[in-house]
Specification:
It is a single chain. The chain is of the alpha/beta class and 260 residues long. The protein folds into two domains: 123 residues, no CATH class; 128 residues, no CATH class. The protein has ten helices and eight strands. The strands form two sheets. Strands 4-5-6-7-8 form a five-stranded mixed β-sheet, with helices on one face. It has a three-stranded parallel β-sheet with strand order 2-1-3, with helices on one face. The termini are far apart. InterPro entries: DNA_repair_put, DUF4130. This is DUF4130 domain-containing protein.
Length: 260
Amino acid sequence: MTQVIYDSTFEGWVTAVFEIYEYKLQDIVFAKNEASADLLFSTNHFVITDEVKVNRVLSGLKKRLSQNAYHGLYQAFLSETHKIEEIMFRYVQYVLSSTINIEDDFSNNDVLELRKAIRLTGKEAHRMEAFVRFKLTKDQLYYAIVEPDCNVLPVIETHFKNRYADQRWLIYDSKRKYGVYYDLKNVSTVELQFNAESSSSKSLAEIGDEGEELFQDLWRNYFKSVNIESRKNTKLHLQHMPKRYWKHLTEKIPDIKKRV
């Protein structure tokens, strides 16, 4: 068995695909950044991301896949589902070895699992677009903290750039310890130590704009006023807004006055 160790990026994984063919590696298991201690008797192959190799692989796939399927590979990678790298590799093998288009061959398990991963990323991205709640700091930066199941910041950044083009903002993924920052011109990826508990009343008083507490309370009151008790459907509500998102949703956080 061969552990193919890459830098956890999509480009690193694509480079790994090239080198698997180049060196005729067999019985592949992918590992991010370092070898897994669970595979004591495996051979390790370390990958250094190479732009030339990335372009060669992607160019070959682009000729054989539709535009949706081609971009879907990246979305599947972002899903971070179990063994997604191995599923994607077997899918690529199938694509490159076939003389016909195999995108909709759901009799093949890897094609089916890849499509599921793509849909998972798309669904999580759609939820994040709806559930992001910005807070305003004293230096007029709007920030939001999220913990998506999938690595969706690269998918949703364009949506927020277009929607909030006139304000500086930062969306921080506390699960993956990085964020996307918009400076009124460009969106860039940033890595920083960010206090995930900054929604607390103490933190809000330290970094929040003077009117931020008022706006949060107004939003909570509005949410309560439109929530008709007689039409309450908890099961449906949880289906559309699972509890795992609640701690970063303003309307689900108790009133600031009650927290003080």
